[in-house]
Amino acid sequence: MDTFIIQGGNQLNGSVKISGSKNASLPMMAACVLTEEDVILNNVPDLRDIRTMKEILKFLGVTVEQKDTHTVSLNASKLNKNEAPYDLVRKMRASVCLLGPLLARTGSTRISMPGGCVIGPRPVDLHLKGIKGLGASVSIEHGYIKTEGKLYGADIFLGGRFGSSVTATANVLMAACLAKGVTYIESAAQEPEIIALAKMLVKMGAQVEGAGSHVITVKGVQKLHGCEIDVIPDRIETGTFMMAAAATGGKVALINADAKHIRAVTDKLLETGLSLKISSDSIEVERDKPITSADIITLPFPGFPTDLQAQMMALMTNGGGLSVITEKVYPERFMHISELNRMGADIKLETATAIVKGVKKLSGASVMASDLRASAGLVIAGLIAEGETQILRVYHIDRGYEKIEEKLALIGADIKRGKEIEHV
User: Fold this and answer.
1) What is the pLDDT of residue 118?
2) 13-17 and 251-255: which strand pairing?
3) Catalytic status, residue 32
4) Domain that holds residue 289
5) Which pTM was predicted?
6) Identified catalytic residue from 32, 117, 177, 227
7) How do residues 9-60 score in pLDDT, each as one tens digit?
8) Domain count of the chain?
9) 1, 61, 112, 384 — which has fewest CB within 10 A?
């Protein structure tokens, strides 16, 4: 397995181009199933999860053509399957976003229960509730979600125990586009990725209003056509590089970044003493004084993203005083704490709240990446640690960050990709 080997202590200085959003690209790719015409997506990141989605779409009969490094052409005119098997779906949880469009297009589906990162329970109950609400029959048999039936507009409430679900909202939104009648999705996710998907669907001929609010209205149409559209910048990659720059005390310009998508993050970073210069498509990050503590509560958008919790925790190990980080989206998403403590951090966990006491220094160590975003947090910790840090199982980070080690090296990090050495 690949590893990252980091020699800590270098400031980051320079500029980084932010890639397209993984979490926007995946449902936009799934939306190609809704039409027989060409769908062309620009600014698609070259990631492991994207490649997995391509494999699944090809299995279904979709023609997938890579026009260049970041442009993908999709054509589902020869769609010949409505089943997504376990061997493919187990690699990536977001593959469940095919459920809605595939059902709308074919009238039935058989999709394996999804896999992905181990960050605590993430049930698909809201997905199934939404699909049932549109009139389909739903059952789970032998590890597969089976759906069947004609779809009709309905009032659907998607509020869950920990707030709205982005992927469930995307699933119901896509399915409702070809349902007969009007659908009202209440307690819809407000994330920028949902707005991006809605804009794409409208460009394909769908009638969607209210994306970005808690109520989305969809008037079903008989047919959708193809389109070409750009994927939005990745707000999680943006936040990760902001925190890396803050942790190392450098000055980094993030190109192709949209600050409107991460206002909760910029607010907290300003609170810690960071300097930010924000323009329409870039963010310049500079730290010229010690980091101070901050209290964080993760929430659905527009709150602080759960996908940046681990990175913020790594930054706060370098801060003065006590920081309190409460996880309200995935309360069990704290597997990185033990690894950060191995590096000399002082973090205590009390149910869904981590209490982080800033320390004078972290020490390099061999640590294990448990999930995608935890991996990024460990990278930030490695950048500021004294000595060498080896991060194992970096295949997690390859799922969501495009060539992160190369981008970091270009702005001054001493980071290399290597192979794990087995000790006998």
Assistant:
1) 45
2) parallel
3) no
4) 2-19+233-419
5) 0.94
6) 117
7) 999 999 999 999 999 999 999 999 999 999 999 999 999 999 999 999 999 9
8) 2
9) 1
